[in-house]
Amino acid sequence: MSKLTTLKPRLKAIDTRRIKPVYGEQRRISGSARVGLKRRIYARDGGHCCMCGRVVDLTDSELDHRIALQFGGDNSERNLWTLCTECHAGKSAREVATGQPDELALKHEVPEDNQTSGFVGL
């Protein structure tokens, strides 16, 4: 009786780890760079929420990405704006619910950088 030979496996084991897709920049700005950037954007926006127009205090406002990093947005000043806490919470909730950039936020433009507008006090 002849001996059976073992065949070499032709299939490779698949990697079952979930791969998180990378859409855009993933690094958030933090520390003193974020504080300075928030002040600059707040001054550019005239101390107003860019979605509802409400006057907001620097400490009670949110520095927000108009198009979130996870949806391909970046950290450029053209993608950052000041939002009140209510508009920020609503925008974030809509993005989580739909899994895509908030359509309402995309209807609003980021203000132009107007050097003559003056600085809004802290």
Automatic annotation (TrEMBL):
Domain HNH nuclease: 37-89
GO molecular function: endonuclease activity; nucleic acid binding; zinc ion binding
Domain of life: Bacteria
Keywords tagged on the record: Endonuclease, Hydrolase, Nuclease
Keyword Transmembrane helix: no
Keyword Nuclease: yes
Cited InterPro entries: HNH (IPR002711), HNH_nuc (IPR003615)
Name of the molecule in the record: HNH endonuclease
